[in-house]
Amino acid sequence: MALKNTAENYGTIAKWLHWGTAILFLASYVSVYYRQWFTEEKTPENWTALQLHLSVGVTIAVAVALRIIWRLMNRVPDLEPGSKMEHRAAHAGHYALYAIMIIMPVTGYVGTGVNTEYFFMFDIPKFEDTQLFVSLIKEGMGLSFKEFEAPIDFIHKEILGAWLVWLLILGHAVAALYHQFVKKDRTLAKMTTGK
Ligand code: HEM
Ligand code: HEM
């Protein structure tokens, strides 16, 4: 198995980053909705679930940074035969997925008023306590953290988290299944067994 991508297949590193990220997205949804639906506020479980959500999100940020570097160092496998429209849609979908892998951790981090206790090993200071917040947002724009946080939270939770992100991932997974079972081409194989 090749480490790098080839014209026919994604390589091992791209596959690990892809499927690892998919598991992390699942974990970020499970932790945040477990917190909202199954825990009472101000209990240890509620805090643990929140901290897991924050830690998983920060990990996604690191993974996407590695992934972008790796993608720039590699060719991308060729798309399977299809119309120009289908290829445009595939590229647009992939770019949109990269966008949410960046935007979700960024809006999550800057809009959160508590430190991230990274998997309970060490603390990552909250944005409000950073020099960037003080010079750019507080002094530069004259906003308090509360004023700054409200629209960012709305984007992270109400627009992206609650709807756009999972719908986009669902569309992506349905497209993969469509290729596998209707078009019967190698799209899913490229990201899995390579056969
Ligand atoms: C790709 C990564 C992420 C995804 C997919 C994601 C997704 C979500 C979703 C679905 C919600 C719940 C929306 C709702 O209320 O309906 C949420 C809430 C939240 N997220 Fe994220 N998030 C990510 C990363 C982060 C990061 C990195 C942080 C902070 C460091 C963060 C902080 C929060 C906070 C504080 C809430 C509110 C929790 C609550 O009200 O229970 N998120 N996120
Ligand atoms: C839910 C299960 C998932 C399945 C079945 C799946 C399947 C696939 C397949 C088959 C490809 C190769 C497409 C091609 O070359 O034409 C692919 C690529 C890709 N997937 Fe997924 N995926 C899943 C989840 C995710 C998630 C959660 C994300 C990120 C949020 C994601 C982001 C991407 C990106 C960005 C590419 C393009 C990679 C590149 O060329 O750099 N996928 N996926």
Describe the 3D structure:
The protein starts with 11 loop residues before the first helix and ends with a helix. The model has no long low-confidence stretch (mean pLDDT 97). It has helices at 12-38, 44-72, 84-110, 131-140, 145-183, 187-191; strands at residues 116-118, 122-124. It is mostly helical and 195 residues long. It is built from six helices and two strands; from the N terminus they run H-H-H-E-E-H-H-H. The relative contact order is 0.12. Strands 1-2 form a two-stranded antiparallel sheet. Helix 1 runs antiparallel to helix 2 (44-72) and helix 2 crosses helix 3 (84-110). Bound molecules: protoporphyrin IX containing FE (2 copies). One protoporphyrin IX containing FE binds at residues 18, 21-22, 25, 71, 76-77, 79, 90, 94, 97-98, 101, 169, 172-173, 176, 187-188, 190-191. One protoporphyrin IX containing FE binds at residues 25, 28-29, 32, 35-36, 50, 53-54, 57-58, 60, 104-105, 108-109, 112, 116, 156-157, 161-162, 165.
Bound molecules: protoporphyrin IX containing FE
How confident overall, as mean pLDDT? 97
* Helical stretch tally: 6
In the CATH scheme, what's the topology name? Fumarate Reductase Cytochrome B subunit
Shape: elongated
Summarize the structure.
18% of the residues are buried. The chain has a single domain (12-191), classed as Fumarate Reductase Cytochrome B subunit (Up-down Bundle).
